[in-house]
Design brief:
Strands 4-3-8-7-5-6 form a six-stranded parallel β-sheet, with helices on both faces. The chain has a two-stranded antiparallel ribbon with strand order 1-2. The two termini are 23 Å apart. The protein contains 13 helices and eight strands. It has one domain. By secondary structure, the chain is α/β, with parallel strands linked by helices.
Length: 251
């Protein structure tokens, strides 16, 4: 078992990449349900404002540290996190693990055509990797009961070992939590925009930007209209809140 670190009320997993892959393998082999959430700063701030989101993250078995500021905050709070693990890091490692162990994968979400291109990329790199299904739901702020049933039925019909959900956070994490008992896949992960990057449809920032905490700026340059509020209005609230947590008993 791994420990968790309290960051603004969200219990973030203190886990290495190797420990994570071992935990996922054990969950699949033992057929035990496991939800993985990948949480950048904006997801933690969303949980601070929304009790439903907070409950989803704190009920999930694994909540990954998906940003340099979160890792910094953990150290500042004297509860350091071993490793930052993003969805962009996890997806290729997980695909390699599945190919090696004959675990099957289902791709749910993203824009039309993205999952199909990702499947082709995966098969080109790992010809024996078993991608058993793809389902792209229509865009809805909240899925109708019928559409939700369609999604669950599509996944269960394919009976995958790993369900990868790309619906943006925290929407993908809420969907997994609400359907965890209905969906039969042992491992269920909200993977975010990693589909597009691994499929070759979007570029990741250079390594030096990743290590220096500037990956957010690279993403902002690519999608300024969509990400302006996240990075320039919401994110600046994070540091004073962390300072407040350090000297407060609220959390």
């Amino acid at each position: 078992m791994h420990s968790k670190v309290n960051i603004l009320g969200v219990h973030v997993s203190n886990i290495s990449n190797q420990q994570l892959l071992e935990t996922l393998t054990n969950s699949i082999v033992q057929k035990q349900k496991l939800q993985v959430c990948i949480t950048p700063v904006n997801s933690v701030l969303a949980a601070l404002k929304n009790s439903q989101v907070l409950q989803v993250y704190n009920n999930a078995q694994i909540v990954l540290c998906d940003s340099v500021p979160l890792k910094w905050a953990a150290g500042f709070l004297n509860t350091p996190i071993t490793e930052r693990i993003t969805g962009l890091d996890l997806l290729p490692n997980l695909v390699a693990l599945c190919a090696q162990n004959n675990f099957s994968i289902f791709l749910l979400g993203a824009s039309p055509g993205v999952a199909e291109q990702l499947k082709q990329k995966i098969i080109a790199q790992y010809p024996n990797c078993n991608v058993v299904g793809i389902y792209v739901p229509p865009f809805m702020k909240v899925f109708s009961e019928q559409e939700n049933n369609n999604m669950v039925s599509a996944v269960n019909a394919a009976s995958p070992d790993v369900l990868l959900v790309s619906l943006t956070a925290p929407k993908q994490d809420i969907w997994i939590a609400q359907n965890l008992s209905r969906v039969h896949a042992p491992v269920q992960i909200g993977i975010g925009g990693a589909f597009e990057v691994m499929a070759g449809l979007a570029k990741r920032s250079p390594k030096w930007m990743q290590k220096s905490g500037l990956e957010w700026f690279y993403r902002f340059i690519q999608e300024p209209k969509r990400l302006f509020r996240r990075y320039f209005i919401e994110a600046p609230l994070f540091i004073p809140l962390i300072i407040k947590q350090k000297f407060s008993k609220k959390f």
